[in-house]
Each structure stands twice: as structure tokens, then as C-alpha cells.
């Protein structure tokens, strides 16, 4: 008989967010997001991109880029990098030029500022003073400094000098989920801890003009956008001030053997040189079921994927990293998810593109606002899944407080 998450509650979970054995689960207590003010519609992007990089003569590549953008499921993307900035830094469009120093100089100020915009919203929602934050976890793919974005962010927010900081660079698109996993561990193991997690991503670190023979440049420039997300994480919420949104029942990481080649990147003189293999959508589709099943099993949630065409997966709500439209399609097809189950991920992809590690905060924010809609209705339990270099799959099992 099929056992679905909808029909069977985990034997080990208690109402207060614990595991029934005195171990308290951390909760996401607040979420904030932010984007740079300037944005380009996906419809206009191809003309914009080939014009500002002085490559309008590359007609074939332009036509291919148009096909990619048309099929991307993206409506607009926000960018810190503007046409004016590119006029001052034409070297950003040519990765043969030594532009890394200039890119890092821009990112040094812009990353903490964008992260602070998201974090301020999270702190306001949290309802307690910034000085009550005990730990700070900051992650970005757009940086390489000491003193880093964590110190600057702590200063911008007025955090205590004793706040315990962790800075994570170059974690790819799974970085935000990895940071949340770390926050969960900190919150559950340090009594009274309140962990601020922040991630800011700027496309300018990897921006480059189109090049013959490097087709993943088009993917990179065609789907990635800028954004920042933040969350406050803590166990044992102080009611009524703190209002949990999602309890974090478990968080796990899997590295898919033999896939190190699939997503690679390196900081080079011309910026972050990032490559994404064509097979990412099928790779994700192939591995998502066992990663999620492995994460659910210890909680006593079983999914029988062989019954009802795999319909058991519909008993969960889903926060899948929208790495690209084809990735969401692949997950939806493999898990036989009902239409609308990935609507939060698709809305975020549509409004902002793939914001790498920051994206998970946007998807969780969408999901908690989507109470009446198909993706959440009736589902107490759900999963957040993100993919990054490794290939890494970060899986977090969540229990929604209001469902
Ligand atoms: C790019 C797409 C929107 C295109 O849509 P479709 O696949 O439906 O359309 P399509 O097959 O006609 O593809 C349009 C054109 O793009 C080309 N194309 C597709 N994927 C490509 C890739 N990865 N590299 C190079 N070219 C690619 C196709 O060959 C085709 O060329 P032609 O038209 O000439 O035949 C989609 O494939 C997509 O969403 N891909 C997922 C992108 C991805 O891997 N994202 C993960 C980012 S990594 C991440 O999130 C984690 C991290 O970075 O850490």
C-alpha cells in the first residue's frame, strides 16, 4: 500500500518542533529578500546583452541566446551591473582582460549592502533587536576578501562585536541551503542561539560577453540574476514575539558520485569562470527521489514511489531551487508532481531568474505566502532541495507551522 506524507505523520515529530526525545528542532523565524533596483526584462535582454558587450555582429549566437531566453521561463532579472558601469569597465565584457580586481572592488561594498537590505527585513519581521543575534552565517559567490562580507554586514546591521561569524565563499547555487543547514546545527546545539543567515549574489563577478565555442556562457548570462536573501533561525521560539514559519526537521547533503565535472568554476583574472554541463536537468531528475527519500526516512515519512505513478510525492510541499526551467520540468516529471506543486519555484524563476545561493530564501518566502494555493494546501511537511557544484544536493525537511 502507498504511504504518503499526507496520510502519515512522522512517528518522531512533536507539535512544538521537536523530535519527541527532547531534541528541539530549529525553526525559520523570519525571512527577508532584496534585489538591486535596476532590472531588464527577459524579452529585452538579448538585444541589451549583445549591444552593451559590442557583439551585435555575432548573429548566430544572438539567435541562440534568443531561443534560450524564450524558453527560460524568466520574465525579468535584476542586476547591480548597469550599462553605465559597463561603459566605465568595458573589460567586464571580455574575459581575456584582467578585470578580477575591479569586479571584486565593486562586490566588496555591494554584496554586504544587498545582504543588509534583505537582513533588515528579516530582523524587522523577527521582532527582536539586531543585538540579540548571536551567530552570523554569510555566503556569496561574489567575493574573495578579507576583511569579508560578514564583518561589513555585521557593522551595517549593528550586530554585537561578539557575534560569532562564519563566512562561506563560492558554494554555487546550493550555498544558501548549505548556510541554512549550518544555521540549524548552530541553533540546535548552542542554547539560546539566534542565527542570522544571509546570502547575496551578483552576476557581475561572472559577467562576460558571448563567445563562439563556449555555449554555457549563454546559459550563464541568460538565466542568472542578482538578489539577496536572509533568515533568522532559532530553536525554542520565544512566544509571542517570535513566530516560527517552518520547523527544520532535518538537513542533509549528498554528493552525487562521478559528477564533479558537471558544475565547475574558478576565479581567474577575467572574473569567475563558471561552467554548467548540458545534462544538469536530467542529472537532477535522476537523483532527486533518492536524496529526498533518504532525508525523509529517519523521520518516519515513507513515500512509495511505485504506486499511483509516484503520486506520493504530492503529499509534500516543495521548495526546489529553480536552477533553470528545464530543471523544474525534470523534477516535476520524475516525481509525477501535480501541476502547481512547483509554482513557488516557477514564480521566483519568472520574476528574478536563478539567483544562485540567494534563491532558496525567495522560494521559502513565496511558499509561506501561498497558503491557499495548490503548492501548499493540506501539506504540513515539505522539502527544500538545492543543487550546486559537486554535484551537491542539499535537502532540508520542513514542517510548515500554518498549513
Ligand atoms: C536553457 C533552457 C531554458 C533551454 O530550454 P530547453 O532545454 O527547453 O530548450 P532547448 O533544448 O531548445 O535549448 C535551447 C538551446 O539552448 C541549448 N542549451 C540548453 N542547455 C544548455 C547548456 N546547459 N549548455 C549549452 N547550451 C544549452 C540547446 O542546445 C539549444 O540550442 P539550439 O537552439 O541551438 O539547439 C533549459 O535547457 C534550462 O533551463 N536548462 C537548465 C539550465 C541549468 O543547467 N541550470 C542549472 C544552473 S546550475 C545551478 O543552478 C547550480 C549552480 O550553479 O551551482
TrEMBL record:
Chain spans, region Disordered: 1-21
Keyword Acyltransferase: yes
Domain Chalcone/stilbene synthase N-terminal: 25-237
TM ranges: none
Active site annotation, chain numbering: 173 (acyl-thioester intermediate)
InterPro entries: Chalcone/stilbene_synt_C (IPR012328), Chalcone/stilbene_synt_N (IPR001099), Polyketide_synthase_type-III (IPR011141), Thiolase-like (IPR016039)
GO BP term (any one): polyketide biosynthetic process
UniProt-listed Gene3D superfamilies: 3.40.47.10
Protein name: Chalcone/stilbene synthase N-terminal domain-containing protein
Organism annotation: Oryza glumipatula
Amino acid at each position: 500500500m502507498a504511504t504518503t506524507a499526507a496520510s502519515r505523520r512522522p512517528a518522531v515529530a512533536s507539535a512544538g518542533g521537536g523530535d519527541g526525545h527532547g531534541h528541539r528542532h530549529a525553526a525559520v523565524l523570519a525571512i527577508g529578500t532584496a534585489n538591486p533596483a535596476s532590472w531588464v526584462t527577459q524579452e529585452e535582454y538579448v538585444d541589451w546583452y549583445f549591444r552593451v558587450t559590442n557583439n551585435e555582429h555575432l548573429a548566430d549566437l544572438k539567435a541562440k541566446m534568443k531561443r534560450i531566453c524564450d524558453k527560460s521561463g524568466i520574465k525579468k532579472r535584476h542586476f547591480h551591473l548597469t550599462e553605465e558601469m559597463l561603459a566605465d569597465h568595458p573589460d567586464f565584457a571580455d574575459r581575456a582582460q584582467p578585470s578580477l580586481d575591479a569586479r571584486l572592488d565593486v562586490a566588496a561594498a555591494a554584496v554586504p549592502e544587498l545582504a543588509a537590505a534583505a537582513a533588515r527585513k528579516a530582523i524587522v519581521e523577527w521582532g527582536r533587536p539586531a543585538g540579540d543575534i548571536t551567530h552570523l552565517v554569510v555566503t556569496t559567490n561574489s567575493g574573495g576578501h578579507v576583511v569579508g562580507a560578514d564583518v561589513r554586514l555585521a557593522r551595517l546591521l549593528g550586530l554585537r562585536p561578539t557575534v560569532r561569524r562564519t563566512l562561506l565563499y563560492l558554494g554555487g547555487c546550493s550555498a544558501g541551503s548549505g548556510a541554512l543547514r549550518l544555521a540549524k546545527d548552530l541553533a540546535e546545539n548552542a542554547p539560546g542561539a539566534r542565527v542570522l543567515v544571509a546570502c547575496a549574489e551578483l552576476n557581475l563577478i561572472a559577467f562576460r560577453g558571448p563567445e563562439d565555442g563556449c555555449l554555457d556562457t549563454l546559459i550563464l548570462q541568460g538565466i542568472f540574476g542578482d538578489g539577496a536573501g536572509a533568515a533568522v533561525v532559532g530553536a525554542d521560539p520565544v512566544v509571542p514575539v517570535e513566530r516560527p514559519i517552518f520547523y527544520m526537521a532535518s538537513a542533509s547533503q549528498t554528493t552525487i558520485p562521478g559528477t564533479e565535472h558537471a558544475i565547475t568554476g574558478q576565479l581567474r583574472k577575467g572574473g569567475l569562470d563558471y561552467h554548467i554541463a548540458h545534462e544538469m536537468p536530467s542529472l537532477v531528475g535522476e537523483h532527486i527521489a533518492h536524496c529526498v527519500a533518504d532525508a525523509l526516512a529517519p523521520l518516519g515519512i515513507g513515500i512509495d514511489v511505485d504506486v499511483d505513478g509516484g503520486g506520493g510525492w504530492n503529499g509534500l510541499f516543495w521548495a526546489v531551487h529553480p536552477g533553470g526551467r528545464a530543471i523544474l520540468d525534470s523534477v516535476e516529471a520524475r516525481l509525477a508532481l501535480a501541476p502547481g506543486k512547483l509554482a513557488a519555484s516557477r514564480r521566483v524563476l519568472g520574476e528574478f531568474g536563478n539567483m544562485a545561493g540567494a534563491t532558496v530564501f525567495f522560494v521559502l518566502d513565496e511558499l509561506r505566502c501561498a497558503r491557499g494555493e495548490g503548492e501548499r494546501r493540506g501539506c504540513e511537511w515539505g522539502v527544500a532541495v538545492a543543487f550546486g557544484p559537486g554535484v551537491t544536493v542539499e535537502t532540508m525537511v520542513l514542517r510548515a507551522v500554518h498549513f
